[in-house]
Amino acid sequence: MRTILLVAAVLFAAIQTGFCQENPSDKAPLRNESFKKFQWGLQTGAGIAHINARKLSSFKDNVEPLLSFSGNIYLAYHPTRHFSISAEPGFIRKGSTYKITALDPPQPARTVQWQLNYLDLPVLAHFYSRCKWSAYAGPAFCVLVNTNIPFDDSFLNKTDLSGLIGITYTLTPHFDIGLRYGHGLTSIGTITVTNENGIGIQDFKEYNQYGQLLLRYRI
Question: What are 48's strand-pairing partners?
């Protein structure tokens, strides 16, 4: 997580000091023209989601990404031209694709999608550069609505807290495009590793991760 934050900070600093200076025509007129204290709009995103069990390599070998998508309302307050705070209530799908092998009786491996559908509320701080780029970070609070897990899902936590970082580029006075990464700060559940006799020997926590390409329409 610290590596991702460092990369995002370096990228934003490079945009600030390099790209904007070399392209004066790309400075902030689009954002300045559309600047309002209060803004709202709609946004949608699509990308990949993944569930990670830290320190459990055998789990990682049997997990693949799942298609993730989201839809949100964008509500923002701009106290200045270079800073804003937004709340983005909406919906998001997280989860993973698992490779499952039945041992008794032996069966070929098959893949199963675990789809976790959440009500989503990111609360983000946005920092605007001198051009059309911006960066943001903040928490996202989620409540589990339903899953498609074909067995008892009581092991899943009903809430999920993630940390988000991202960058956004202003295409027009009303449209933004961006990239976002979300990393679970609280676990979604616990995996119990068993021995050959079916006795639990160690517990590992699972965490959501996802990355998305976003499109936002500001009204």
Answer: 67, 211
| 54 vs 145: CA distance, rounded Å | 25
The reported pTM is 0.78
Query: Residue length, the chain?
Result: 219
- Give the pLDDT confidence of 129-152 residue by residue, as tens digits: 878 899 999 999 999 999 887 666
CA dist list (Å): 123 to 50, 77, 126: 22, 11, 10
- Which class for 48: exposed (0-12), middle (13-18), buried (19 or more C-beta within 10 A)? middle
What is the DSSP-derived secondary structure letter of residue 129? -
pLDDT tens profile 22-73:
454 444 444 544 567 899 999 999 999 988 876 555 555 667 889 999 999 9
Distance CA 15, CA 134 (A): 9
Exposure pattern of 54-65 as b/e (b: 16+ CB <10 Å)?
eebeebeeebeb
The contacts of residue 11 (CB under 8 Å, 6+ apart) are 135, 167
Q: What angle do CA 41, 44, 47 make, to 5 degrees?
A: 155
